[in-house]
Design a protein that fits this description.
This is Adenine phosphoribosyltransferase. This protein is of the alpha/beta class. Helix content is 33%, strand content 34%. Strands 4-3-7-8-9 form a 5-stranded parallel beta sheet, sandwiched between helices. Strands 1-2 form a two-stranded antiparallel sheet. A two-stranded antiparallel ribbon has the order 5-6. Bound molecules: 1-O-pyrophosphono-5-O-phosphono-alpha-D-ribofuranose and adenine. The site of 1-O-pyrophosphono-5-O-phosphono-alpha-D-ribofuranose has 16 residues, from β7 and α5.
Length: 178
């Protein structure tokens, strides 16, 4: 089954980038064509009926899955990036990570008011990254109610936090006990 193929392709690194963190590395999924393809197929199958206008992917690993999914769904792709990476006029939003804080930015002209947006990232932990991404989209007038991930760490509670922010998440595989 393709979900198991994907889960088996994820590598776990203990104590990276800090002691106590079990790092779930999605780059080993990308290295395996059938697992990478299965990710895009499952994300497409789950979201194809919603008729989104844009896919937003968050730096850096959200780009790896968001851009090929946008091509599959026949819609545009918008990158949300770390500060000072986007060249045109941006808006910014701060957020907390499982292991630190950071800031994200989006081009002001990337979302049109009323655009239906699907957010894509590799992994859902606290949900902070996706909530900050949703805040950016909503500040530009976009409608965002769905987010798709390859990996979820359910014990950290991101899915509930996203639901409280009005976002339903779809995760291909779960790693419990993190
Ligand atoms: O649900 P959260 O607690 O917000 O954590 C998930 C986020 O953390 C990781 O990115 P990271 O910030 O490490 O950035 P990178 O992809 O640029 O390495 C991951 O790719 C998600 O974007
Ligand atoms: N445990 C984890 N593994 C990989 N990426 C992450 N981003 C936040 N937490 C993570």
């Amino acid at each position: 089954m393709s979900k198991e193929l994907i889960k088996d392709a994820v590598t776990t690194i203990v104590d990276y980038p800090k002691p106590g963190i079990l790092f779930r590395d999605v780059t080993s999924v990308l290295q395996q064509h059938d697992a990478f393809q299965a990710c895009i197929d499952l994300l497409k199958e789950h979201h194809v009926e919603h008729q989104f206008d844009k896919i937003v992917g968050t730096e850096a690993r959200g780009f790896l899955f968001g851009a090929p999914l946008a091509l599959e769904l026949g819609v545009g792709f918008v990158p949300v990036r770390k500060p000072k990476k986007l060249p045109r006029e941006v808006i910014s939003e701060s957020y907390e990570l499982e292991y630190g804080t950071d800031e994200l930015e989006i081009h002001k002209d990337a979302i049109n008011p009323g655009d239906k947006v699907l957010m894509i990232d590799d992994l859902l932990a606290t949900g902070g990254t996706m909530i900050a991404t949703a805040n950016l989209i909503r500040r530009l007038g976009g409608i965002v109610e769905y987010a798709g991930f390859i990996i979820s760490l359910p014990d950290i509670g991101g899915e509930k936090r996203l639901l409280e922010a009005g976002i339903t998440s779809y995760c291909i595989c779960e790693f419990e006990g993190d």
